[in-house]
Amino acid sequence: MAIKIRLARGGSKKRPFYSIVAADSRMPRDGRFIEKLGTYNPLLPKDHEKRIVMDVEKVKEWIGKGAQPTDRVARFLEAADVIAKKPRANMKKAEPGKKAKERAEEKAAKSAESEAPAAEAAAE
Fold first, then answer.
1. What does CATH list as the number for 3-79?
2. Is residue 37 a contact partner of residue 22, using CB atoms and an 8 Å limit?
3. Which helix (H) or strand (E) covers residue 12, if one does?
4. What's the predicted TM-score (pTM) here?
């Protein structure tokens, strides 16, 4: 049986509230879970102490039994120094593609060409 430490969504529409739970990986996200380990309220400010509340001892116990945290829960655990930080792959998603880079270079070249005659005329 594969155990995951993950978030189970609660709260009403557009007002999310999550429970941090240990659950069988085959169960639905908001379905049956084994044990509730804490809560996460994303609507609170990031520095608020009640934003992430978890029972660290229970979490360590479940990790000792072989439970795997999901990506989001792993970040919470890394921030709480429960697990070691692991390097994340930066996939350069924000970087523009080849065509966009080419268009930007062409635009820069055109603007440099159009500025050069204007600068020469101003110098005379």
1. 3.30.1320.10
2. yes
3. strand 3-12
4. 0.69
